[in-house]
Amino acid sequence: xxxxxxxxxxxxxxxxxxxxxxxxxxxxxxxxxxxxxxxxxxxxxxxxxxxxxxxxxxxxxxxxxxxxxxxxxxxxxxxxxxxxxxxxxxxxxxxxxxxxxxxxxxxxxxxxxxxxxxxxxxxxxxxxxxxxxxxxxxxxxxxxxxxxxxxxxxxxxxxxxxxxxxxxxxxxxxxxxxxxxxxxxxxxxxxxxxxxxxxxxxxxxxxxxxxxxxxxxxxxxxxxxxxxxxxxxxxxxxxxxxxxxxxxxxxxxxxxxxxxxxxxxxxxx
Length: 269
What we know:
Elements: H1 7-33, E1 58-61, H2 72-80, E2 86-89, H3 98-116, E3 121-126, H4 128-139, E4 146-152, H5 169-173, H6 179-185, E5 194-200, E6 220-227, H7 238-249, E7 259-261, E8 266-267
Parallel strand pairs: 1-2, 1-3, 3-4, 4-5, 5-6, 6-7, 6-8
Helix pairs in contact: 2-7, 3-4
């Protein structure tokens, strides 16, 4: 056996190598697209009368040092499957407080609701974007305006990756035990939003990887484990996109405190 590794260890190493190669390819493509996402997008017009009333607007929220260009693939997938109002929010790269970004998100949500006539929206947040949206829902009354919040690789319990990055205030807010995370871990009785959290067993930005699971006794949560891809692949992989569409279309409510898990992992390897 090469290097004395067991077949199981070799399988894990091979999967990690494949995921890392995919991450590098995605990063290269994203660097090319990044300039196109710097400028805020033009607001979409109100939907035509023929649009199905049940199709709520979807707001996409990117992660740290990123912009709306990360959602090119997911946005196309949503619009091709009947979501006619999909909008991305850019928050400033100079933002130093997650709470300020959550307030900005709240203003955008209210604008979209007023423009489209929908009482509620859905939100998909990648990484830090999911944490910003969660703060809006839990702490700023957003649960009356957000039907479903889908998070992709979001550090719900804090991540310990890259300790030298603590110079940035937003990174410090994503550390385990931060004031913001303690706020979110506190009681949240009666929260009406439904949460779906996608987490990957090969996410090298979430340390440990289970931090991207959402576990809270007061929230309606469905955790989905993804196997075979890393952090950057979550918003662009077609299998995850299909899972996001299913999550947004599933309007069923679970009992408060329910924390469901997909049987096994959704493998994309």
